[in-house]
Amino acid sequence: MNDALKATLVAALKSWIESANDPASDFPIQNLPFGIFSDAINAQPRAGVAIGDWIVDLSVLEDARLIDGHGTFNATRLNDFIALGQQTWRDVRIALSALLAQGNATLRDDADLRRRALVPRKDATMHLPVEIPGYTDFYSSREHATNVGSMFRDPKNALLPNWSELPVGYNGRASSVVVSGTKVRRPNGQIKLPNDERPVFSACRKLDIELETGFIVGKGNALGEPIPCEDAEAHIFGMVLLNDWSARDIQQWEYVPLGPFNSKGFATTISPWIITLDALEPFRTATPAQEPQPLAYLRHEGDHAFDIELEVTLRPEGAQRATTISRTNFRLMYWSMAQQLAHHTVGGCNTRVGDLMGSGTISGPTPDSCGSLLESTWNGQRPIELEEGGERAFLLDGDEITLRGWCQGEGYRVGFGECAGEILPARG
Ligand code: CA
């Protein structure tokens, strides 16, 4: 890592934008995540970076020749910017860090430019940050795979023999990935009730969440050319929070032999801000020990997990307070993002800029650290009590689920913002 990049990550760095210096802000000057936004004054979606309570309009700064995005900022998605490559993302981030740092007067003291370049986040509408050519979902938490295997198959053989040899995954549905805030309709589908011979067609009765993160591919690979594990992180632009909504009753009937289909394909929600791997660098840490040692193509030296605190809250319709239903950490994931990408491409599968790769449900070892209601309520048998009374086994119409994530630094935190969605009733 070069000195200019290191300088953007210093814990003591402050911004002249005061709200960015609040230790509770998700968006201090050390973060600088990228997204696509619009506002009442300019309804055209365009690229921005979050800083404190504000969004920096990147196209305005480019017009003022303060940053260089090669004309890609005035776009409804970040794909063209991301395709410019890692050096350009870094150069833009380094330039922004300097412009926003305490003591830099260029933007701070230019009232006209400041008025045009800074948009209050509360007035902005966030859009899907990237066009997603493909969405893949992995299954890389040992605790989650063990819990689901116990419930859906057999507690004695919960973890299948392939699980500790390869990052299990499947090709998901990119077309139904939506941005945080989009309402999610309860799906209808085939459900097989235990005492009936044939399935019924019904609204899902076991609607669930999956707490995940996702990474966005920043540099693709050609068909037939695998990405080596050691190089894989250079192919990642950044990370988002991801809720892989799941219809458990539909899933349990349909998933044999090819895996989930309608139980997952109705919606996947992601957070709007993409946190770059550069911003996450200070929070790099070791993955859990891997036993047996993975095959050679899945090996990498050094630390490849990130210390990201995660939390899920549920707020019933009309409730004042939300209930925290899970707290866990991304660092518990058995397989790293690099190993997932290396495995995904090892047979020659190509990836493209903007591809979304879900981590798999992130569960810890205890019921309050499970990333799905399926696990925390043990398939509905042990409902969760809610703060304002009542309980939940699975989601009811009107429930709002919010995922949050952050890396805790010294006096600041690199946050992901929110990944939220409310449940609408099924179509009649
Ligand atoms: Ca999933």
Describe this structure in words.
The chain has 428 residues and is an alpha+beta fold. It has helices at residues 3-7, 58-63, 79-83, 86-100, 105-108, 111-117, 142-152, 248-254, 262-265, 277-280, 337-345, 373-376; strands spanning 34-39, 46-51, 54-57, 118-120, 124-127, 135-138, 169-171, 177-179, 184-185, 188-191, 200-203, 207-208, 211-217, 236-243, 246-247, 268-270, 275-276, 284-285, 305-306, 309-315, 323-329, 356-358, 384-385, 391-392, 400-408, 413-424. The strands form seven sheets. Strands 6, 7, 8, 13, 14, 16, 17 and 22 form an eight-stranded mixed beta sheet that branches. A five-stranded antiparallel beta sheet has the order 4-3-2-1-5. The radius of gyration is 22 Å and the shape is globular. The mean pLDDT is 97. The structure holds calcium ion (CA). Calcium ion is lined by residues 137, 210, 212, 244, 358, 360-361.
Which features would summarize this protein structure in a list?
428 residues; alpha+beta; SH3 type barrels; 5-stranded antiparallel β-sheet; 12 helices; binds calcium ion
User: What is the averaged pLDDT score?
Assistant: 97
CATH architecture of the largest domain: Alpha-Beta Complex
What's the CATH H-level homologous superfamily of the largest domain? Fumarylacetoacetase-like, C-terminal domain
Q: What is the number of domains?
A: 2
Q: What is the CATH third-level topology name of the largest domain?
A: Fumarylacetoacetate hydrolase, domain 2
Total count of helical runs of at least 4 residues: 12
- Count all strands and give the number: 26
Structural class: alpha+beta
Q: Compute the CA-based radius of gyration.
A: 22 Å
GO biological process, one term: homogentisate catabolic process
Pathway: Amino-acid degradation; L-phenylalanine degradation; acetoacetate and fumarate from L-phenylalanine: step 6/6
Binding site for Ca(2+): 137, 210, 212, 244
Domain Fumarylacetoacetase-like C-terminal: 135-405
